[in-house]
């Protein structure tokens, strides 16, 4: 559970906890600090070489962030006295402190972090408010309407779509409505397996607290340590284990949202209803443009009895994708199944900690020998699928066999539980890596899409090629690192997740170059039949493609909802539309 | 002998496409047959016709067998050996731009490559394969007309050397289209080999670039549109011959003496040719053009995203327009890089000075034309900086079947015509003029823009830019099948024409007006004389249609009809326009009228039927009649 001053626990200019980060120790070896993750305190002997080889980077060339926020650079807080008086009367806690405001004026896009490290934001919230319940939110929205203010809801702050950035041209007072203090589980209904939860609760807290009663939601986006339930609803989030539990739209039973028009909710909490278009679907993905989600009734499940990780090595990416497609076809996907390409496999390999005993290192060697020499897999071509099974022990084992049998048909070889588990641990840790890169002239980001099965391979290949080509054209000296993984499987297609990073030494405006390349990559995705976004959302970063994505009329439909619900644009973060 | 053999047996390890998954020709055939695309069409046809899909599948297999190549290194080596022997006897030299070959080598490794050579002779694709073999590049698979299959052994050998065969027309046959398209795309997608075909569709009998065909081009572009490949390189290749192997064959054909069917014995007879000399071949391999770059910002991706990629889909209008633009662009690149020999210039001069021309004057005027051609961007190869006299003498020697030197005068070689009947004289003369025209024709597309401005200046007898432009624009429309114009940029073409004329000091322009300069009249009258055969030819053909032709006719009726009409005029001496006898001009003129809406073309079961809109034809004819000055019988204006 977070306090109001999040910067005490979390980095002000990077990802995650203050105490957790990658560093190069005195011996020049990479190390991950802190005790929060399995990788914590471990030395990663091959990582330095990997960075040098992959990016042409050198540890001698550092580009350090400034040490702390320069309060004098921060735009002043402009708040109307009358509003302040009314706000104080409500007894809702607030702050006009510069650090508090800066912290809520951004998400985690590359350009935002870069601005924190080296530049400034031209516009940040003028005031932060911390409602503690639904009623507080109603009061704040009323005040905003009365005084004509702009509200930008803030949950976990993990947005990667520029959704939290304040529109520069916004003249009204911007109120950052931080939901973090609305974090209680209001009730648990064991008969119907639902829980009503305040929207500010953060993913890991929700799971921890539900676990105390023996339940879980099973919704685990990669950001779950920091992202909030309200944020999931507002962006149409997707969880790693959606194959069992579903994505957010499958999990939500009821939503309560405060809008300038009033409160929107349903009259009952039922699994399904036929009452015209589902109003939940106006709310989910609205990205803070319509109101504040305050309470959500969400499905819960008993905590699974047994969990088992697994991994499979495939001779190449094509075979791997074919296998995932078959698994999806037979509808037997485990809780999670992901396929990483060769570059990401090698990346993961570079993050292997020093092994404690000679025995494990010997075993590793043996495994490697078996796969590359005996089975003839090319270490520069092979790829790996990581698996997570959940449920009754017996069923898991049965399920496991079914999946491995399919994998065998596609030339896959089981590669052990440990590799699987490491794969999933890495997704949490990988987000910390960008901060290390930034120290050494490496910038990067991830982006994602969803695509029909038959186009997965073409899309992956073409996007990587496009990135390589754009980098070359834009004068990037060293070939970029671009890698992808298939992270979700569906009946009709898959979600593909890309990492892309490059060494920007010698480039005067790296962020601009980065953005141009990312835009080209998105163009390529769309040309290959991929979507604008599978789960990151649109925000302001991808707005330009909305019309193409959902047609003129579609956009008009969304606009008319916005016009009715929020005619004065109180929720003026300018996302989506 | 041994050197040819050594050459044929050399180590051949061509560079290949980086994404290549190697496979045998038979595997490709099987992949094509079992592809979703072909299977879909088979199922559709089975549903529609009630035929069992097994039978249709068999038919598809037969098509594949008929069509597919079966490239084998042995056959390639055999060809290399024989070709190197034959080529050495036929041609003096083969010149290639080395940097073009290097660029090609680079391109082949990066993306699938489509080779787009000009088509003047059967030698084209043999020579190109030979060249790629010599430079250790992947041999292309070539779309060749199916008539080759009639040549028993040679057809099979060609197949083994990488040719695949397509029927000349298969518009209606969906199975054939599906199998063929998938076959081409499969080879392209997996980078099996460069795909080679001729945009012009067939050998140009006149050495003048033919308007492009779009079918194959749109097939090879589709994998990119559907993003099955990242990019595709289109490589324009210009092949020019100092003397075209089939020159007399073409001339006969144009005059209506039917072309012999390709047969092995025909080829053996062609051995007679082997003792002849055909001069130099120039091959210019153009810069590979990235399809992705061409398409950037032009293609709406939606149509390809909303339909499964294996379903046959009629290209949208903007795609069709794009394909057509690309086709014209590639042909214009071919033209730009086409090497012009001294003889080409001499032929152009000579044709304006028939029946005989003083040799010294010919040299002088040819040199003058050389300068003009270079100003217009023509790519002239003057062998080893030879002095003009030697260059032209050697040109005359090479073309002694067409021209000869008599008492210091260059005359057409229409031997045997003197004594014959009038008809025979006309025929022989036409033959010689058409053959000579084949060489002048190579200049036309370089000259067409400034020349049509020159013609428009003469026709309008006005200096007002607006009027000249409107006449230019009319001519450009009329000649849209005769010469190569990029679609829809009439004004740009006009401006380019004016610019080039200004560059050679032939005209001066102001905001509103265009004036020929004093010394410009020589250029202007030369240019318009160069195109006069076309103006007069069209005029005659239009006159035939307006006065003589039936209201409705088929193509089979049209050609002999107009030929007779022109022939009679020539016999009577009422016209000097021998080139109007060429079936090429006749067809183009008819096509122009169809495009201008003056003639309606209808598809019937047995070919096309045309019906004339008399009024419209008369109107166009009036434009010509009122404005084309009558040619003085022998006008040595130069």
From TrEMBL, chain A:
The keyword Acetylation applies. FAD binds at residues 153-159, 235-238, 287-293. It catalyses: hexadecan-1-ol + 1-hexadecanoylglycerone 3-phosphate = 1-O-hexadecylglycerone 3-phosphate + hexadecanoate + H(+); a long chain fatty alcohol + a 1-acylglycerone 3-phosphate = a 1-O-alkylglycerone 3-phosphate + a long-chain fatty acid + H(+); 1-hexadecanoylglycerone 3-phosphate + a long-chain fatty acid = a 1-acylglycerone 3-phosphate + hexadecanoate. Keywords: Acetylation, FAD, Flavoprotein, Lipid biosynthesis, Lipid metabolism, Membrane, Peroxisome, Phosphoprotein, Transferase, Transit peptide. InterPro entries: Alkyl-DHAP_Synthase, FAD-bd_oxidored_4_C, FAD-bd_PCMH, FAD-bd_PCMH-like_sf, FAD-bd_PCMH_sub1, FAD-bd_PCMH_sub2, FAD-linked_Oxase-like_C, Oxid_FAD_bind_N. Its main location: membrane. Catalyzes the exchange of the acyl chain in acyl-dihydroxyacetonephosphate (acyl-DHAP) for a long chain fatty alcohol, yielding the first ether linked intermediate, i.e. alkyl-dihydroxyacetonephosphate (alkyl-DHAP), in the pathway of ether lipid biosynthesis. Catalyzes the exchange of an acyl for a long-chain alkyl group and the formation of the ether bond in the biosynthesis of ether phospholipids. This is Alkylglycerone-phosphate synthase. The lineage of its organism: Eukaryota, Metazoa, Chordata, Craniata, Vertebrata.
TrEMBL record, chain B:
The keyword Acetylation applies. CDD domains: LPLAT_DHAPAT-like. The keyword Cell inner membrane does not apply. Residues 113-242 form the Phospholipid/glycerol acyltransferase domain. GO terms for cellular component: mitochondrial membrane; peroxisomal membrane. InterPro entries: DHAPAT, GPAT/DHAPAT, GPAT/DHAPAT_C, GPAT/DHAPAT_LPLAT, Plipid/glycerol_acylTrfase. It catalyses: dihydroxyacetone phosphate + hexadecanoyl-CoA = 1-hexadecanoylglycerone 3-phosphate + CoA; dihydroxyacetone phosphate + an acyl-CoA = a 1-acylglycerone 3-phosphate + CoA. One of its GO terms (biological process) is ether lipid biosynthetic process. SMART domains: PlsC (SM00563). It is an enzyme of class 2 (transferase). Keywords: Acetylation, Acyltransferase, Membrane, Peroxisome, Phosphoprotein, Transferase. It is a peripheral membrane protein. One of its GO terms (molecular function) is glycerol-3-phosphate O-acyltransferase activity. Pathway: Lipid metabolism; Membrane lipid metabolism; glycerophospholipid metabolism; Phospholipid metabolism. It is found in: Peroxisome membrane. Its EC number is 2.3.1.42. Dihydroxyacetonephosphate acyltransferase catalyzing the first step in the biosynthesis of plasmalogens, a subset of phospholipids that differ from other glycerolipids by having an alkyl chain attached through a vinyl ether linkage at the sn-1 position of the glycerol backbone, and which unique physical properties have an impact on various aspects of cell signaling and membrane biology. Part of a heterotrimeric complex composed of GNPAT, AGPS and a modified form of GNPAT. Belongs to the GPAT/DAPAT family. This is Dihydroxyacetone phosphate acyltransferase. It comes from Dromaius novaehollandiae. The lineage of its organism: Eukaryota, Metazoa, Chordata, Craniata, Vertebrata.
């Amino acid at each position: 559970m977070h306090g109001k001053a999040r910067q005490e626990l979390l980095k002000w200019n990077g990802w995650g906890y203050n105490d957790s980060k990658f560093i190069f120790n005195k011996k020049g070896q990479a190390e991950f600090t802190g005790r929060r993750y399995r990788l914590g305190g471990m030395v990663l002997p091959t990582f330095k070489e990997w960075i040098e080889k992959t990016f042409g980077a050198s540890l001698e060339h550092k580009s350090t962030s400034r040490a702390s926020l320069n309060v004098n650079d921060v735009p002043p807080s402009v708040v109307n006295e009358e509003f302040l008086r009314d706000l104080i009367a409500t007894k809702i806690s607030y702050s006009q402190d510069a650090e508090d405001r800066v912290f809520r004026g951004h998400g985690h896009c590359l350009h935002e972090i870069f601005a924190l490290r080296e530049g400034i934001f031209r516009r940040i919230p003028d005031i932060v408010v911390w409602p503690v319940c639904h009623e507080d939110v109603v009061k704040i929205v009323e005040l905003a309407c009365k005084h004509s203010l702009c509200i930008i809801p803030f949950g976990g702050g993990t947005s990667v779509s520029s959704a939290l950035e304040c529109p520069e041209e916004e003249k009204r007072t911007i109120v950052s409505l931080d939901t973090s203090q609305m974090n209680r589980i209001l009730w648990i209904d064991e008969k119907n397996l639902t829980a009503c939860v305040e929207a500010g609760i953060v993913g890991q807290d929700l799971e921890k607290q539900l676990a105390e009663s023996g339940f879980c939601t099973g919704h685990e986006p990669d950001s779950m340590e920091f992202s909030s339930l309200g944020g999931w609803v507002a962006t149409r989030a997707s969880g790693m284990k959606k194959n069992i539990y579903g994505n957010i739209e499958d999990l939500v039973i009821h939503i309560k949202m405060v809008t300038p028009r009033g409160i929107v909710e349903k009259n009952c909490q039922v699994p399904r209803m036929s009452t015209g278009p589902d109003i939940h679907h106006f709310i989910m993905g609205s990205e803070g443009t319509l109101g504040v989600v305050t309470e959500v009734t969400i499905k819960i499940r008993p905590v699974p009895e047994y969990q088992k990780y697994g991994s499979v090595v495939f001779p190449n990416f094509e075979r791997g994708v074919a296998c995932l497609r078959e698994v999806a076809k037979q509808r037997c996907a485990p809780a999670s199944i992901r396929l990483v390409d060769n570059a990401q496999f090698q990346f993961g390999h570079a993050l292997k900690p020093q092994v404690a005993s000679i025995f494990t290192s010997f075993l590793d060697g043996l495994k490697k020998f078996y796969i590359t020499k005996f089975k003839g897999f090319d270490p520069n071509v092979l790829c790996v699928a990581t698996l997570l099974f959940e449920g009754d022990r017996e069923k898991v084992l049965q399920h496991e066999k079914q999946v491995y049998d399919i994998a065998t048909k596609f030339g896959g070889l089981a590669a052990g539980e440990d590799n699987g588990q490491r794969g999933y641990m890495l997704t949490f840790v990988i987000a910390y890596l960008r901060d290390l890169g930034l120290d050494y002239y490496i910038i990067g980001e991830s982006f994602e899409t969803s695509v029909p099965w038959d186009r997965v391979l073409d899309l992956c290949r073409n996007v990587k090629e496009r990135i390589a080509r754009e980098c070359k054209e834009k004068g990037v000296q060293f070939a970029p690192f671009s890698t992808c993984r298939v992270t979700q499987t569906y009946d009709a297609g898959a979600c593909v997740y890309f990492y892309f990073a490059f060494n920007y030494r010698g480039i005067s405006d790296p962020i601009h170059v980065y953005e141009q390349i990312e835009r080209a990559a998105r163009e390529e995705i769309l040309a290959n039949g991929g979507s604008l976004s599978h789960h990151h959302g649109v925000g302001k970063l991808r707005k330009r493609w909305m019309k193409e994505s959902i047609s003129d009329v579609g956009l008009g439909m969304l606009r008319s909802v916005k016009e009715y619900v929020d005619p004065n644009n109180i929720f003026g973060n300018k996302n989506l539309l | 002998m041994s050197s040819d053999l050594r050459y044929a047996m050399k180590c051949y390890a061509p560079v290949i496409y980086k994404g290549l998954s190697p496979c045998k020709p038979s595997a490709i055939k099987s992949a094509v047959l079992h592809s979703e695309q072909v299977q879909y069409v088979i199922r559709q046809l089975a549903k529609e016709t009630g035929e069992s899909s097994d039978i249709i599948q068999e038919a598809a297999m037969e098509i594949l067998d008929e069509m597919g190549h079966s490239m084998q290194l042995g056959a390639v080596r055999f060809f290399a050996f024989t070709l190197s022997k034959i080529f050495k006897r036929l041609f003096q030299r083969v010149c290639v731009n080395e940097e073009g070959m290097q660029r090609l080598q680079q391109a082949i490794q990066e993306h699938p490559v489509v080779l787009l050579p000009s088509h003047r002779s059967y030698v084209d694709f043999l020579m190109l394969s030979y060249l790629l073999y010599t430079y250790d590049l992947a041999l292309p698979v070539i779309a060749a007309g199916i008539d080759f299959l009639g040549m028993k052994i040679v057809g099979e050998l060609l197949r083994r050397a990488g040719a695949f065969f397509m029927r000349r027309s298969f518009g209606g046959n969906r199975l054939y289209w599906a199998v063929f398209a998938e076959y081409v795309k499969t080879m392209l997608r997996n980078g099996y080999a460069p795909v080679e075909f001729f945009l012009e569709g067939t050998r140009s009998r006149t050495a003048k670039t033919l308007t492009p065909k779009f079918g194959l081009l749109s097939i090879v572009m589709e994998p990119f549109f559907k993003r099955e490949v990242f990019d595709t390189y289109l490589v324009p290749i210009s092949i020019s011959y100092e003397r075209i192997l089939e020159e007399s064959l073409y001339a006969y054909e144009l005059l209506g003496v039917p072309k012999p069917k390709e047969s092995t014995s025909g080829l053996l007879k062609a051995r007679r040719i082997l003792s002849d000399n055909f001069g130099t071949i120039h091959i210019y391999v153009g810069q590979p053009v990235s399809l992705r770059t061409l398409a950037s910002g032009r293609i709406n991706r939606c149509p390809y995203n909303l339909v499964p990629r294996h379903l046959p889909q009629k290209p949208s209008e903007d795609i069709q327009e794009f394909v057509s633009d690309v086709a014209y662009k590639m042909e214009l690149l071919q033209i730009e890089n086409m090497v012009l020999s001294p003889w080409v210039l001499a032929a152009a001069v000579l044709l304006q000075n028939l029946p005989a021309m003083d040799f010294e004057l010919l040299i002088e005027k040819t040199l003058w034309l050389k300068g003009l051609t270079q100003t217009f961007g023509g790519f002239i190869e003057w062998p080893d900086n030879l002095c003009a006299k030697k260059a032209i003498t050697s040109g005359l020697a090479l073309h002694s079947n067409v021209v000869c030197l008599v008492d210091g005068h260059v005359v057409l070689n229409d031997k045997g015509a003197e004594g014959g009947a009038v008809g025979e004289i006309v025929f022989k003369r036409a033959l010689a003029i058409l053959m000579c025209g084949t060489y002048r024709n190579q200049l036309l597309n370089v000259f067409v823009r400034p020349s049509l401005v020159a013609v428009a200046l003469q026709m309008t007898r006005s200096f007002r830019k607006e009027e000249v432009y409107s006449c230019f624009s009319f001519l450009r429309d009329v000649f849209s099948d005769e010469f190569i114009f990029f679609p829809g940029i009439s004004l740009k073409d006009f401006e380019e024409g004016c610019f080039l004329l200004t560059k050679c000091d032939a005209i001066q322009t102001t905001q509103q007006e265009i004036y020929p300069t004093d010394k410009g009249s020589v250029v202007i009258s030369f240019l318009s004389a160069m195109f006069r055969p076309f103006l007069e030819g069209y005029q005659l053909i239009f006159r035939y249609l307006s006065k003589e032709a039936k209201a409705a006719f088929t193509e089979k009726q049209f050609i002999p009809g107009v030929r007779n009409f022109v022939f009679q005029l020539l016999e009577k001496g009422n016209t000097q326009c021998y080139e109007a006898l060429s079936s090429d001009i006749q067809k183009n003129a008819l096509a122009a009228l169809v495009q201008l809406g003056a003639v309606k073309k209808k598809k019937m079961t047995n070919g096309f039927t045309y019906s004339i809109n008399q009024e419209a034809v008369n109107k166009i004819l009036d434009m010509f009649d009122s404005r084309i000055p009558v040619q003085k019988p022998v006008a040595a204006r130069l």
